[in-house]
Amino acid sequence: MAGFLSNFRNTMIVSVILALIMIVGYYLHGPDHGGAIFWQAVFRWLHVFFGILWIGLLYYFNFVQIRVMPNVPAELKPAVSKYIAPEALFWFRWAALATWVMGVILAISRGYLMEVLTLGFAGGYDAGQINYTFLGVGVWLGTIMFINVWGFIWPAQKIALGIKEADADAKAAAAKKAMMFSRINVLLSLPMLTAMAMNQTVFG
């Protein structure tokens, strides 16, 4: 068992297989047997999985790596910047993209994409649209965070980590820029998660 669990790929393969067995169970025993509700559940599952991966890594960078790096001995810092950070950033940026895409697909499948994007103002606004206002705020915050990842954090990190050639001053400036946009995403993450986590429970 220890040998199996020490192999990350095999562990994830078995985890995915077990999840697929459960998904098939929902397909067979759900109320619409593979209809619209089932596929909405699948898209939500993917949206949540990629979101956990994305925000988990965002919190790793900010709760751990950025805070601890100044105390890491100089001779050990290349281990983080050359090996750990590039790998973490790979999963970070692609999880951000997948989270956003799955969120859009989920909104389309539920038929409320335009209502959410317009904060409930599509087709006229009334008090019954407040659920779209809350959810729309969460969607727009998540979209800003996604844009920050691909438009600012990743381009800056490529310079800071030496993936893209630059002098020492440019690397330092890029590292500061990446950190600031990462902190913006941390700031936005809790209100975004509030909308995502509470909206369906409160409004259905």
UniProtKB/TrEMBL annotation:
Transmembrane annotation, as ranges: 12-29, 41-61, 91-112, 132-154, 184-203
InterPro entries named among the record's database cross-references: UCP032086, Urate_ox_N
Superkingdom, taxonomy of origin: Bacteria
Record's keyword terms, sorted: Membrane, Transmembrane, Transmembrane helix
Positions of the Urate oxidase N-terminal domain: 133-199
Name under which the protein is recorded: Membrane protein
